[in-house]
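Hi R.,

Here's the chain you asked about this morning:
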Amino acid sequence: MFKRLAGWIGIFCILAYYASLQTANVYAETLQSTNYKLDESAIGTGGQNQASSANFQADNATGSLSIGNSASSSYQVEAGTKTTPYPTLSFAISNSNANFGSFSPTTAATATATFSVSNYTSYGYVVQIMGSPPTNGLHTIDAMNTTDSSQIGKEQFGINLVANTLPTSVGANPNNGQFGFGSIDSSYSMPNQYRYISGETIASAPKSSGATAYTISYIVNVASITPGGKYTSNQTVVITGTY
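And the predicted structure, written out as tokens:
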């Protein structure tokens, strides 16, 4: 008896903020002595306007400006033009529909979804994925709750976030662009190895990060006794800034 099985996944994204911010009054004194006075002083290039007196004069000049991130285990500095001091966490979903087409007990089905995350002036972020495996009525395809390879003919639903060659060429490694620091959790970072546990962390950044583009690779295997019909699932990606 011929059974048609098809699958589809919708991807959604939620941002969560947890922050504790405190402010205090700050006062700055004019740089001066009995011989000179500097008005409108600042740390950086081009920061001393009208630096002159009867005895000397300083020309205001802007030299070379380096941009980028300088960091150690205790601090980090983002150099560049003036930007907002407020923490920002943003995301974009560039491909939210993972369509598997028809399932077959003799071939693994694959699909991908892509999203990107960036954060500014925070201490990083974590990315979690939530949702159920593909379901048709009362039947749900088994999630891979241990990391494993694709096995034809055995019910499996799993993901990773890297480029794979098995069961086919699918997915991509994270793209950190110019100033991204995003990385994949070790459970989802092995090529050709898949896993899915709802609520687990799949990626993170340890500090302020430019945009990192992630690709979720999905695989589905079904058995010869898997009920036919249309299988659907909604996945939610939760991104939490850390401060």
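Confidence is low (pLDDT under 50) at residues 15-28.

Let me know if you need anything else.
M.
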